[in-house]
């Protein structure tokens, strides 16, 4: 399952899921960002991979988080959000993290552009 998250526009302490591939899950939905791996990716600007996610309340066991960041070309930029991919098996993305990062890169850049244009509208 994949999710698109952005900082919650109303509450700085939360992230808001604005799109999901699993239509059975609530969307939009806001969550405390403090312990979210998506927040770690957004904050660090790096891909975060959790091969052994443990939460009995969740169906997934692996999480791969891609930060969305708009580079202004002048040494600055804006953290826009993250795309997360969840999988029901532990270690589902082992040895695939780099490959997926490369293959998804054009789509992540398009999402960044769309989110940036939405901010300016």
Topology of helices and strands:
Layout: E1 2-7, E2 14-20, E3 29-32, H1 37-44, E4 48-50, E5 62-71, E6 77-87, H2 97-120
Antiparallel strand pairs: 1-2, 1-6, 2-3, 4-5, 5-6
Q: What is the N-to-C succession of helices and strands? A: EEEHEEEH
CATH superfamily: GAF domain
Major beta-sheet overview = 6 strands, antiparallel
Kindly give the count of domains: 1
Structural class by SSE content: alpha+beta
Helix coverage percent:
25-40%
CATH architecture: 2-Layer Sandwich
Mean pLDDT: 93
With strands numbered from the N-terminus, the spatial order across the biggest sheet is 3-2-1-6-5-4
The CATH topology turns out to be Beta-Lactamase
**Per the principal axes of the C-alpha atoms, what is the gross shape?**
globular
Radius of gyration: 14 Å
Number of strands: 6
Q: What is the CATH top level name?
A: Alpha Beta
Strand content: 25-35%
Tell me the number of helical segments per DSSP (H or I, 4 or more residues long): 2
Q: List low-pLDDT spans.
A: none
CA-CA gap between termini:
29 Å
Short description:
With 121 residues, the protein is α+β, with helices and mostly antiparallel strands. The chain contains 2 helices and 6 strands; from the N terminus they run βββαβββα. A 6-stranded antiparallel beta sheet has the order 3-2-1-6-5-4.
